[in-house]
Amino acid sequence: MATADVITPEVSTRICAHMNDDHAEAVLMYAKMFGNATMATAATMDAIDPEGMDLTAQVDGAATTVRITFDHTLTDSEDAHQTLIAMVKQARQKG
Per the database record, which ranges form the DUF2470 domain (predicted)? Predict the structure, then answer.
């Protein structure tokens, strides 16, 4: 089993690339449900850190920066993974 990595800028870049490439629908849900960008039509994850994530959401054709703070400070990349999954489940329940 792989060990979890501390969330460095390199790890942030890796997580963001994965989320944007493979989970664009989830990133859009984060923007809508947790970032108050309810009118967003698309979103990309720009950065993730232990306190939260920075997204760029497309709202009415304009790029809008969205900061989402996590409900706890992330300890490592595995914590980030589990937290992002939990947030998708929560967004689906609300939506």
Answer: 12-87
Q: How far is Cα 35 from Cα 64, in angstroms, rounded to an integer? A: 11
Q: What is the CATH number of the domain that holds 60?
A: 3.20.180.10
Looking at the domain assignment, is residue 1 inside a domain?
Answer: no
The answer to whether residues 29 and 92 touch, using CB atoms and an 8 Å cutoff, is yes
pTM to 2 decimal places: 0.92
Residue 37 CA: distances (Å) to CA of 27, 48, 56, 61, 93:
12, 18, 10, 13, 18
Residue 32's alpha-carbon distances to 1, 25, 44, 55, 80, in angstroms, are 34, 11, 12, 11, 19
Cα 30 to Cα 55: distance, rounded to the nearest angstrom: 9
40-75 tens-digit pLDDT: 999 999 999 999 999 999 999 999 999 999 999 999
